[in-house]
Amino acid sequence: MSRSPTDSAAAHVVVVGAGITGLLTAIACARAGHRVTVLERGPLPNPDATSHDQHRAIRTLLPGDPDGTARRIAAHRHWEELETLLGTPLYRRVGVLTAHPADRLDDLLAEADQAGVPVDLPDGRDLPPLGLPPGTVGVRERTGGVLLADRVLRAAVRWLTARPGVALRPHSTVRSVFTGSGRIVLDGGEVLRGDLALLAGGPWTRRLAAAPVTLYRQTMLYLGRPPGGDRWDGAPTAGGLGREGRGWVLPPGAGTLLKLSSDTVCRPVADTDSTGEDQRPHLERLAAEGVLPDLERYPVAGVRVCHYTADAATGGPLLAPVTPGLWTRAACGGSGFSTAPLVAERITEAVKEAA
């Protein structure tokens, strides 16, 4: 049972950044009975946020990493619960097909079985043309699929707006954070302090608290359906594609376009200003990867440039306490979106520990 936000044991949690991590953390803390203030430098939801997109992949099986698989399974359960809580479909269960070395297939299937992740080997004739690298086979996780990212953000904002004890403050830019005291200073000079604060402002968090992270820029291509029979209806998300096995395709459906991306065009940068950057070399590199072997058939619907931060040592997400009352989150691309419920859970635990 959740506590009332007026309960004397309730804490005050300040969340900086209203992307997926910030919003889900606010929901988790509010459900636990805490007062929550969410500060966002733009509107709610913010179209400039790293989390703002049509869709993001969700999968559970991480070969060779049973602990990571267990965490992804837990995140998957959280997403199912969030669909019920927020009262709207958030998740297209179309499965996730990933290219794996054919000579390791038996080991992979055994690992999936041990983890309780249902998988199958779909007939390629039922799928759209995908650029699986030579020597690989496509293994589909039947419980994976696509999170409808923009829909998730809107639903979270609606839920929080109606929740007692939650203050959503758009257009509230944080000027500085005093890491020793946890005090947060806004551009207008207002000073806030909670019992615990989470800095989850995406790439912009770097200037508020020192963290060992690297800033990356990514170029993604959005496509319409090709003419004729395209076999994209009900098609899975697909990864491990292209010459280097680093490409992803997110299928169209539920009002979304087809999205094409690859880590090969992800590059470290010094800042988030991409104004004037020529995207053609990155798009040419993306096309040359062969993620979709018949790419020329697809009409281009849009190009997007986004930024994210990752742990400088591991290249993955980073969640770390600066002090017991101040945490920072560096979210890493799509995995940062799908695992955001786990961050929300950890911050809720940290509030309890601090109390």
UniProtKB/TrEMBL annotation:
Its cofactor is FAD. It comes from Kitasatospora setae (strain ATCC 33774 / DSM 43861 / JCM 3304 / KCC A-0304 / NBRC 14216 / KM-6054). SUPFAM superfamilies: FAD/NAD(P)-binding domain. This is Putative oxidoreductase. Residues 12-349 form the FAD dependent oxidoreductase domain. InterPro entries: FAD-dep_OxRdtase, FAD/NAD-bd_sf, MTOX. The keyword Coiled coil does not apply. Keywords: FAD, Flavoprotein, Oxidoreductase. GO terms for molecular function: flavin adenine dinucleotide binding; sarcosine oxidase activity. Pfam families: DAO. PROSITE patterns: PROKAR_LIPOPROTEIN (PS51257).
